[in-house]
Amino acid sequence: MANSQSEGQRAMKLESERTQIYEDIKKQKEKISKKRQEEIERGLASSTTKIVKKRKDKTVKAKLSFATNDEDEEEAVQLKSPESMLPEKKRKVTKNPNVDTSFLPDKEREETERREREFLKLEWLKQQDKIKEEKIMITYSYWDGSGHRTQVEVKKGNTIGQFLEACKQQWDEMRGINVDNLIYIKEDLIIPHHYTFYDFIVNKVRGKSGPLFAFDVHDDVRLVNDASIETEESHAGKVVQRGWYEKNKHIFPASRWEVFDSSKEFTKYTIKDTNAKK
Q1: How many other C-beta atoms are found inside a 10 Å radius of the C-beta of residue 90?
Q2: Which residue ranges are recorded for the region named Disordered (predicted)?
Q3: Which of 203, 200, 191 is nearest to 257 (CA)?
Q4: Which pTM was predicted?
């Protein structure tokens, strides 16, 4: 009986000691937790201050450890500044009104300029079409060894081939001849059929003795041994049959004729027959 009471008292004592131990551990944990919270708050305040000053994200680590029942418990707490969570605000860039920025890309300005260029292009094309419709009188000679001068009306936009088609309607000798078998010679140059009068007039193309087509004739130049003598004499072109040219191309004046070449410049010219016997 005495032993039973002794054991009961012992058990109660052990239970009391165990309870006391748990209470002490609990208090120790609370004390540690409170201390840890204070350290975290101090670390957070310090981190926030540094972030504001340096504009960098920093982290604060707090590591606490304590042991119970022969086991080590480790906790790591990583805190991040609330400011670092927010997207960094971009600094607003303002323009200096005194700086020339016309060289910088500008879609709106480029589109406006493109429309203006397109408008000017269309206006220019309309103007050129109007010029091509203008009528002109071309003086020429039907040449069969001697000249038979006359005129024909054409448009500036007509080709030399169309001009020859109009010419052959004026002569019985040419009506049955295909245009391909007719040649037009201006300033001793054989003009290919695909060129237009507009091409020569607008570009002021020069032949051997002056502009191929200058209707005011004041720019017409005939060179005698050099390029310094001007004359107001207008030179009529010649229309000849290809067969006649092939037979007589070694004889003056056909011996002087050559096919027009837009890349060639004429520096010297004489109206004399260089093949004539002295």
Answers
A1: 6
A2: 29-52, 68-110
A3: 191
A4: 0.52
